[in-house]
Amino acid sequence: MNTISTIFREKNLKLTPQRIAVYKYLQSTKEHPSAETIYKAIQPNYPTMSLATVYKALKTLVEVNLVQELNVGEGNFRYDGNVSCHPHIQCVSCGRVDDINGISFTNLNDKVKDYTDYDVLANKLYFYGICKDCKDKNDD
Ligand SMILES: [Zn+2]
Ligand SMILES: [Zn+2]
């Protein structure tokens, strides 16, 4: 909680209960939910909150770098409370998004420098596949 209140104070942003709820929910899950999923999860505790409010809260949290926005294709945005640079994999069958742990691609930035005159700052890697649950279902 410390980080979010400090960052919001520094940026002169209002720390509304809705923004805190969205942030806390993202800290509590590794499932990379969409805005709709976040809305459904926290709406029971905030009955007056609209989906638009969730979108606005997410936009603000992304702007102050407390939340990472993942564009997994076709305008399908997912959200991650872990803002460190890490690769993701999405199931093409059910749409779930998982972290890929234990492998780093930061050295890719250096490699790519040989092929461009840009200063390479970052990369975002998305892999696509079939998750274990979907594989198991197909095996039946
Ligand atoms: Zn799947
Ligand atoms: Zn992630």
Automatic annotation (TrEMBL):
Residues in the signal sequence: none
Top-level taxonomic group: Bacteria
Transcription regulation listed as a keyword: yes
Gene3D superfamilies per UniProt: 3.30.1490.190, Winged helix-like DNA-binding domain superfamily/Winged helix DNA-binding domain (1.10.10.10)
Keyword annotations of the record: DNA-binding, Repressor, Transcription, Transcription regulation, Zinc
Family: Belongs to the Fur family.
Protein's recorded name: Fur family transcriptional regulator
Organism lineage string: Bacteria, Bacillati, Bacillota, Clostridia, Eubacteriales
